[in-house]
Amino acid sequence: MSKLLIVGSIAFDAIETPFGKTNKIVGGAAPYIGLSASNFNIPSAIVSVVGEDFPLEYLNKLEEKNIDTSGIEIVKGGKTFFWSGKYHNDLNSRDTLETQLNVLADFNPIVPNDYKDAEIVMLGNLHPIVQLGVLEQLTKKPKLVVLDTMNFWMDSALEDLLKVIAKVDVITINDEEARQLSGEYSLVKAARAIEKMGPKYVVIKKGEHGALLFHNEQIFFAPALPLEEVFDPTGAGDTFAGGFTGFLTKTDDITFENMKKAIVHASNLASFCVEKFGTERMENLKREEVQKRLQQFKELTQFEIELS
Amino acid sequence: MSKLLIVGSIAFDAIETPFGKTNKIVGGAAPYIGLSASNFNIPSAIVSVVGEDFPLEYLNKLEEKNIDTSGIEIVKGGKTFFWSGKYHNDLNSRDTLETQLNVLADFNPIVPNDYKDAEIVMLGNLHPIVQLGVLEQLTKKPKLVVLDTMNFWMDSALEDLLKVIAKVDVITINDEEARQLSGEYSLVKAARAIEKMGPKYVVIKKGEHGALLFHNEQIFFAPALPLEEVFDPTGAGDTFAGGFTGFLTKTDDITFENMKKAIVHASNLASFCVEKFGTERMENLKREEVQKRLQQFKELTQFEIELS
Lengths: 308, 308
What we know:
The structure is a homodimer of 308-residue chains.
Chain A: E1 4-7, E2 11-17, E3 20-21, E4 25-27, H1 29-37, E5 44-51, H2 56-64, E6 67-68, E7 72-75, E8 82-87, E9 94-100, E10 120-123, H3 128-136, E11 144-148, H4 151-156, H5 158-165, E12 170-174, H6 175-182, H7 187-195, E13 201-205, E14 211-215, E15 218-222, H8 236-251, H9 256-273, H10 280-283, H11 287-301
Helix pairs in contact in A: 1-8, 3-5, 6-7, 8-9, 9-11
């Protein structure tokens, strides 16, 4: 079976939304990606770093989901990366209140030997130099490398970011970031411009407005499932990335047709993530719940029109 | 064959977008609705009012598309309703620069005798008292009455608006208006609240982010076709409404399943409207173009996932 290698931050998050407030809870790209991908019962490994303050029980929970945590460095005497943010009333935007890089500042990723030949690689949001450092350790060219990034790196490390963008097959990015990176307002034109930078596939995430997959002249769209309540959007994009790569790892098929399905699974899983604070909802997600919501997804989007 | 009765404004619009500027061109809800619905080769009639300054050639063009214009009153010595607006750079919002109600101020709609028994009635955006006035002239209960309205009437004539909302089967409204009308931020909750006001079906238009159809616990979503360029969004919502009601008139089937198809046709037709200023694109739209884009629509949204 194919293997999924995940690199990304592990964090303590303190989150405030219109519905409530958390103390430090576990967050960061890697746990969301890993938990989401684990719904496909695939072998995966996380490469990341935490401080001595990080709860080992959480790592055990990941291990129970078949996620190899041997690539998660625990820095003695170090403190885990901390982020605190407050969402605005519409949940579509947020302010960062505090960032403490802590052990992430000097993170030197080490890929476990068993995963140096992983077929699918998910480069979660991190400094592009760390993402490049992971690619350099691989002993076999992966079938697919997927990159997630954000505007912060466009502003602070564009040159490095463009280097890693040139090396990946798929980039996932939100609509505003796609516009910033490409200088194009139209998402169709933005995707085309980004394809020229390297990735053959461009996924543009529009949050509550769904996600678009571009490849040459082909476009596929999946909406976000309309929910009665969105409780905490943190990690939805990472959960999406985990669902996307998890499904592709499971099916071992990277055609555009199969990527469409991956986008649907990704959107479906992301719809659960936002229902509770942090990773809580994703830790206890049941197969039946996922299947039931996939059925809703089909009803939401599928129609029959005969063309003459 | 079923018939479609359309009521709505006819206007001169002066439009400024980031791409250009028009002098007075024909606009208003009714021409967009009528032209869009005419793609289904159905008998329809427009009830509206213009001034003596209105070009008769335009009415002839409508007649050539099987649109009965005998219900369009031409007020001697009167001036046609005038609206002028300027779109912001993202085309998602606009400022009204000038509004001259002119003949619309005293508009007293008269439904042609042949259309007093129309099966489908499309109440385009107008003062709710005018919309009610049309319903009162019908001699036979229509199979379906669809209402389009906007925040302007919520602010200035809410009581009358609620009266007409209580009498219709379907309401089409944009996302911000749905939130304003219902007091709910979640569109799922907003739709449920609006259903309680009367309409059994609620269509929430999200512009470039697509449209949602709600009915009890059922939800259907159709995206807007991603376009390289949106030139002028004026009339897209009316074109959508015309496609929706035109298809339902043609098929004479008002089940939820058929309404899904109507939403797809509506979104598809709206994607043409925005490609040129005013009604120009809709005046010369060819059947082959519509069919080709429907195929793109299927490719954009349809996927195959087997549920186990």
